[in-house]
Amino acid sequence: MKTLALNILDIVQNSLRAGAKTIRISVQESEITDRYSIEIEDDGKGIPAEILKKVTDPFITTRTKRRMGMGLALLKHHAELTGGYLEVESKEGTGTIVRASFCNSHFDRQPLGDIGGIMKILIGANPSLEFIYNHSTDKGSYSFSTAETKNYLEITQITDYELLEDIRSMINENLAEIKASGLELKAGA
Prior knowledge:
The protein has helices spanning about 5-15, 50, 70-80, 115-125, 145-155, 160-175, and strands at about 20-30, 35-40, 85-90, 95-105, 130-135, 140-145. The protein has a six-stranded mixed beta sheet. By secondary structure, the chain is of the alpha+beta class.
């Protein structure tokens, strides 16, 4: 995967398969501490203890159709390339937390990419779920919540294409305002 946003999408797909109703994505980046971290937390069914021990092995998966699970293994690989790490915390019945930490300035740290576009895809494909996105940098922070958006607009689901596009733009513009160093969007993205 070329961007961290695509890694996030892949991990969130695991949360969706686990029946999560609320998914929280947090990104923290700091030039001061030279750390870049991602945390994805869900309230899904959790990972059984025997699988949790081997969860970053690409040949271990709970799926029956595709016998390989590359998402966590790739995220771990990319984090370790920068001197970082990946940890997965899970308890059956309560959900899972995936944490990845990177050296922010390391040349092998992937750019964040179009996280607004990824959120647009996730929200549009799962309009009844709760997504929370938090992003902080040395210069500020930004938060987005589908529940707050639905409440403000007095709607029950976010399905309108124009609204989803506005959300994508709003997220990316707010990240640019807090000067998110990993935000590298192409014109027209």
